[in-house]
Amino acid sequence: MSKANTEMPDGAALSPFDAAKYLRTPEEIATFLEAIFEDYDGDTRVIVKALGVVAKAQGMPNVAKATGMSREGLYQALSGKGNPSFDTMLKVMSAVGVVLRPAAKPVKRTKPRAKKAA
Questions:
Q1: Domain-located, residue 105
Q2: Alpha helix segments (H runs only) across 1-118
Q3: Is 1 part of any domain?
């Protein structure tokens, strides 16, 4: 076991990480959302929360205006506790400059198919 001092020095503090500060371009936003979709496969709460981070990065009032929603309604829908409609999700994605596109998911096969006899 390491004998390194693991205590924080007096006066030291960690700041919470805010991903929204680093999402400046549509490419950065798309890369962030792609990573969320890949890493949290199907966890809609995390995906919704990530869209909230993106909306914050773009300016929640701007996104609210572009989606036709109130700022408060948008905050609530994208809080990770809300349950936004698919329509709302698509409107937010469009407002922040990304699109949702279907892609084929690789099929995992447990054993090779048997060849049919001719």
A1: no
A2: 26-39, 44-58, 60-67, 71-77, 86-95
A3: no
Amino acid symbol at 22 = Y
Domain contains 113 = no
Tokens found for residue 20 = 């929204």
CA distance 52 to 77: 8
The pLDDT tens digits for 79-115 are: 878 899 999 999 999 999 998 888 887 777 777 666 7
- 0.85 cut: is pTM over it? no
**Contact partners, residue 105, CB within 8 Å, separation at least 6:** none
Please answer whether residues 91 and 105 qualify as being in contact, where contact means their C-beta atoms are separated by less than 8 angstroms: no
Residue 90: what residue type? Answer: L
Q: Whole-angstrom Cα distance, residue 51 to residue 62?
A: 14
Which residue from 106, 22, 103 is spatially nearest to 58, judged by alpha carbons? 22
